[in-house]
């Protein structure tokens, strides 16, 4: 990393770069898993890298905090068996995982609020509804296998599936409302965190294909298999610790990126704390944040339109900590589902080695809208009453209660990830990772395998960095 102005490696105008504090090979915007993996990969190739992060911490949408003496994973946390990129990194870093508690019966609340305890892999929703659910799951599995996660927009049925909502698709599959609503728990509420009428059937298929099939998404023992000892944010912290000291600049939101006149190589990035000249740029933030940066010259029309068709979902992640995991004494796993319930999902989220018990519940999309309009005390009361309908009145009195609200976070603005509006995936998907001059894109929101997960972020960071490193190597060979 070199202080001062140009070194001749960048094509950026000398006048534009004259006030630069640093000159590097690559500037990475965002210190989440994608950005940090990109920086790690680039430094392993001997390249100079700087990472500019708007927040006062690394980790992006993974975040752990101690609240009233309780360790809580406010952001993303789950590790599933198919997340081989993440699992390989954890092994390399010497980090441990532990399984989610799942012994005992789960709880299902039907549309009328009737409570059922059950074991096995299917809600006790009645013979006909269960059969319909299995049929819909099989149909989604077939589509996911046929279309795949890499280029869903290129499939012959892409436009057909992308111009109908997931709600419409479900209605065409079954007249059983309970079956449709139960399936919706896993995609609308559980993954995309948007109402099923707000995203397309093709977007739903991509979500399923990215996890290896819809059967994986409805199997909580698979998709919510394990957690990282010390929290998922500690993965980003470990990555940051292994970078060259001084690589990561916190509290440094990038306000402007000026590309070179040649539009092929070189840019100046102006942040709140440092100005950087870079030969290449990797934007490792979700698409809904691209507009927070002023681009000079402006991004082409294609990106301008594309980014307006990508938006975050909305979910409140609720943490309730109790002196003991009281549900276990009742023979319950802590897992609960209810399509018509305020908290559509609840799980035992007790920390590794903790004698206390922790529950995590999720309030998604339109229900989250309703809750966020209420006073905090009223919202807490209603959410705890929802947990109590699953696990008993003991749930009404946690010793620690906290709500993760990423929608209010300036540098996130929603959760878990962005997805396309109706028709956007087949229209723009093929171009979503296309570089603009020296600017490349990397985030879990653009991933194939591991879409919306840390695994996808890591894949995106590594693959984009490898592409950038290859381009810089080729340029050096041509100049040499």
Automatic annotation (TrEMBL):
It comes from the Bacteria. Keywords: Oxidoreductase. Its cofactor is FAD. Residues 34-468 form the Amine oxidase domain. Gene3D superfamilies: FAD/NAD(P)-binding domain. It holds the Pfam family Amino_oxidase. The keyword Oxidoreductase applies. Belongs to the flavin monoamine oxidase family. This is NAD(P)/FAD-dependent oxidoreductase.
